[in-house]
Each structure stands twice: as C-alpha cells, then as structure tokens.
Amino acid sequence: MSDTDYTVGELRRCLEGISDDTKLSFGGGMTVYRIKQYAGDEVYLEWNEPFAFLDEKFRKNNPHIKVAFVDLNAADFDESGLLGSVDVSIR
Length: 91
Prior knowledge:
This protein has two helices and two strands, in the order H-E-E-H. The chain has helices spanning 8-15, 56-61; strands at residues 32-39, 42-47. The longest helix has 8 residues, at 8-15. The chain is extended and about 45 Å long.
C-alpha cells in the first residue's frame, strides 16, 4: 500500500462511536452516487459530479491540480444534451 491509500479499517476507526444516523458530508459539495467493489481488496466511491477533462497545457501549468469536478446544475449543455466546454480557472 502507498501513503495515499486509505483503508476501510481506518475509516471505521474514524467513525467509531458515531451514530449510524449521522449525516456524512464531503468537501466541495461532492455527493455520493454509489460505493462499488471492483476487486476483492478495493472499494470505489463514485460521485454524482463528473470529472472535468484537464488538457495537457492546463496540467503542465497547474501540476498541483489532480482532478476537477463539474456541477451539472451550473453547466451548459448543447442541443444534443451533451456537456460542452467548461472553464476551469484557478483563483
């Protein structure tokens, strides 16, 4: 395991003693779509918010940005219902 891995056991220990009815909130307003087990030893949390494509120029100029998510409520869709370009700017 790498230093960035986080296990179910670590999560359980962090949540120990917290009521099952306690609401979980995620930074940035992220909302959980589903939790899926793809491999026997790994569980994947999927978000309702889709990932934005970050082109190579953006990645080169902003190496500290790992991922950007899109709020579909604020996005523009084209006439076919597909999401068009989204401006990702750093403030």
